[in-house]
């Protein structure tokens, strides 16, 4: 089975390598826009499927194509990548001193069928000061990350604990990804 990762994320590429399966990468452009009334879990699943399908258009017909999407959800509100520093500061102020969910969906399109899994992890942040928030923005890390933080980077010192899958927060839950691939192989 020829495996393709439809993603521009270097983190997803690094993580997928840990499955020890050869794969190639395509980088489709997919519009990310939550619909009115669309629940976070449905939204993130839809984007992962859209990315897998868009990737399939750029791949061989018999390829198995993986798409994935990560969002942070706080009080039902979806936080994507911050558009600027003010947006980032507003996000960090929301996340400070409390728990939120990091949701990652991974979709696999193979042989005309698309399967998707959504993995939701509860992430607990310590209370953040204005100074900590400002210094974190300056590192450049937040800009390309859902919710404005990278648990694998300097935001690690803000996270008291998580309940769920660390790799799902980072962007690609490998247990679920491997399960999807094995299911496709058996189909
Ligand atoms: C919460 C969190 C997100 N992220 C990243 C994972 C994703 O790359 C990014 C969320 O944006 P996504 O839109 O899910 O992905 P992307 O645009 O980076 O890549 P592509 O759509 O091409 O696959 O945030 C972290 O790296 N660490 C974290 O702790």
Can you tell me the CATH architecture? Alpha-Beta Complex
Tally of individual domains: 1
Mean pLDDT: 97
Sheet-strand content, in percent, reads 25-35%
User: Could you give the order of the helices and strands?
Assistant: EHEHEEHEEHEHH
* Strand runs, count: 7
Subcellular location: Cytoplasm
EC number: 3.6.1.9
Protein name: dTTP/UTP pyrophosphatase
Catalytic activity: dTTP + H2O = dTMP + diphosphate + H(+); UTP + H2O = UMP + diphosphate + H(+)
Q: Can you walk through the features of this model?
A:
Helices cover 34% and strands 28% of the residues. It is of the alpha/beta class and 187 residues long. It has a single domain, classed as Alpha-Beta Complex (Maf protein). The radius of gyration is 17 Å and the shape is elongated. The N and C termini lie close together (11 Å). Bound molecules: thymidine-5'-triphosphate. Residues 7-9, 11-12, 51, 68-70, 72, 81, 102, 144-147, 149-152, 169-171 line the site of thymidine-5'-triphosphate. It catalyses: dTTP + H2O = dTMP + diphosphate + H(+); UTP + H2O = UMP + diphosphate + H(+). This is dTTP/UTP pyrophosphatase.
């Amino acid at each position: 089975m020829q495996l393709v990762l439809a993603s521009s994320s270097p983190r997803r590429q690094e993580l997928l390598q840990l499955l020890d399966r050869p794969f190639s990468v395509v980088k489709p452009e997919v519009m990310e826009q939550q619909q009115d009334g669309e629940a976070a879990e449905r939204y993130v699943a839809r984007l992962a499927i859209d990315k897998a399908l868009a990737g399939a258009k750029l791949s061989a017909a018999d390829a198995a194509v993986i798409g994935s999407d990560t969002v942070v959800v706080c009080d039902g509100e979806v936080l994507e990548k911050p558009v600027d520093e003010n947006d980032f500061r507003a996000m960090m102020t929301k996340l400070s001193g409390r728990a939120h969910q990091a949701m990652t969906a991974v979709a696999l399109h193979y042989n005309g069928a698309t399967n998707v899994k959504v993995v939701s992890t509860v992430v607990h942040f310590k209370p953040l000061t204005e100074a900590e928030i400002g210094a974190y923005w300056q590192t450049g890390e937040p800009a390309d990350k859902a919710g404005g933080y990278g648990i694998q980077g300097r935001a690690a010192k803000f996270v008291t604990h998580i309940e769920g899958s660390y790799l799902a927060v980072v962007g690609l839950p490998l247990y679920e990804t491997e399960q999807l691939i094995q299911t496709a192989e058996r189909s």
